[in-house]
């Protein structure tokens, strides 16, 4: 049997295969809380070794998209409990992706119409959030220049991540994934061309640029244990106006070293090295070969931490990378939207159903829970 379909121990969790359902924003929670329809959607996909939930905001401030189920109120915790119960009943395992978008938000989403917050006051030029337009209708909107967080506010957000992790466990999740990728708040601190702070989180030293990320990791680990914590990162990504910088390899190698020392359950890497960057005015990411070299270096720093790769994944690529020891688990994103039985399709070489892109975000059951399993 291929390693791809074999059982795998990841931190405190045993997975029935090495296939991961990547986090996918679907904007199907009108009250910002998961409901029975969300529960059915995830339960349909529970044959994955691991499901990572769509990004779930840790606070109203951390939200950048309408209709995303959060993890910071009692109602949201109860809503997610419906999902985790359904996934577990179907034999699956599920982590909650906990999320703060930073500057990629809009006053129409923020409490009291406040500005979004970030490591600096630099605007994400060309980026889009999903908020309300001038007529009060849901629409893609341009994030304004954010307000720079004070040092005390950064500490508050660290605490909110820890509380979100505790809330996720209360909601029945098997663990959490810290969303450190895709141009959101963590990258806004790590990127020296965005971060212009002068305090302990300044960009003048690598230690300072990583401080916020490591503080959140440590706070979450202290609350729920390292074996139930993962983190998602995207080296060479340029989503939402993230410029490339010279110290990318140094930054992520150092981060991997710190994560390896903490023995987290996993690192989930998003490969953005070869495709255009939607939501920005710029082009794609860095060279593919450079990315793979960095991935191999990071793997060497993670002896007791699983490495997941997402982006451009296929059955053959997943098997090759796992067999070569470059990654431990393979994450599939878009394929899971229209193929709830993806594991069986990959295992049997059945054809994949194409997704209807116009139903990716928002709406009802269509394009969400109405995709049928393969009819053999």
Automatic annotation (TrEMBL):
EC category name: oxidoreductase
InterPro entries: Aldolase_TIM (IPR013785), OxRdtase_FMN_N (IPR001155), Oye-like (IPR045247)
UniProt key word Oxidoreductase: yes
Keyword set, alphabetical order: Oxidoreductase
UniProt-recorded Gene Ontology molecular function terms: FMN binding; oxidoreductase activity, acting on the CH-CH group of donors, NAD or NADP as acceptor
Names of the cofactor(s): FMN
Entry keyword annotation includes RNA-binding: no
Residue ranges of domain NADH:flavin oxidoreductase/NADH oxidase N-terminal in the record: 3-351
Gene Ontology cellular-component annotations: cytosol
EC number: 1.-.-.-
Xref: Gene3D superfamilies: Aldolase class I
Family: Belongs to the NADH:flavin oxidoreductase/NADH oxidase family.
Name of the protein in question: N-ethylmaleimide reductase
Organism encoding this protein: Pseudomonas fluorescens
């Amino acid at each position: 049997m291929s390693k791809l379909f074999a059982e795998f121990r990841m931190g405190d969790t045993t997975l029935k295969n090495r296939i991961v359902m990547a986090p996918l924003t679907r904007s199907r929670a009108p009250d910002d809380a998961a409901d029975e329809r969300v529960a059915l959607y995830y339960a349909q996909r529970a044959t994955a070794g691991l499901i990572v939930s769509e990004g779930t905001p840790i606070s109203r401030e951390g939200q950048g998209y309408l209709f995303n189920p959060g993890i910071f109120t009692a109602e949201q915790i109860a809503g997610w409990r419906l999902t985790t119960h359904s996934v577990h009943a179907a034999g699956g395992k599920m982590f909650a992706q906990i999320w703060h978008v930073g500057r990629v938000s809009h006053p129409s989403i923020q409490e009291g119409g406040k500005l979004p917050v970030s490591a600096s006051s630099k605007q994400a030029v060309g980026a889009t959030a999903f908020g309300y337009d001038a007529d009060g209708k849901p629409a893609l909107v341009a994030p304004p220049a954010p307000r720079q967080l004070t040092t005390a506010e950064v500490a508050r957000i660290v605490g909110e991540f820890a509380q979100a992790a505790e809330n996720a466990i209360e909601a029945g999740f098997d663990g959490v994934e810290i969303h450190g990728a895709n141009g959101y708040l963590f990258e806004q601190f790590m990127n020296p061309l965005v971060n212009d702070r002068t305090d302990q989180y300044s960009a003048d030293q690598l230690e300072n640029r990583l401080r916020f990320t490591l503080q959140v990791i440590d706070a979450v680990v202290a609350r729920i244990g390292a074996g139930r914590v993962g983190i998602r990162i995207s080296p060479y990504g340029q989503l939402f106006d993230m410029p490339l910088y010279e110290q990318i390899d140094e930054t992520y190698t150092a981060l991997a070293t710190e994560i390896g020392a903490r023995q987290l359950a996993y690192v989930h890497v998003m490969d953005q090295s070869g495709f255009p960057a939607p939501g920005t005015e710029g082009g794609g990411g860095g060279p593919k070969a450079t990315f793979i070299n960095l991935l191999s270096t990071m793997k060497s720093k993670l002896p007791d931490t699983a490495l997941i790769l997402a982006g451009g994944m296929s059955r053959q690529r997943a098997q090759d990378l796992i067999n070569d020891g470059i990654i431990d688990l393979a994450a599939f994103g878009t394929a899971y939207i229209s193929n709830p039985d993806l594991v069986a399709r990959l295992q049997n070489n059945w054809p994949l159903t194409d997704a209807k892109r116009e139903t990716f975000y928002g709406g009802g059951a269509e394009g969400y829970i109405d995709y049928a399993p393969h009819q053999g």
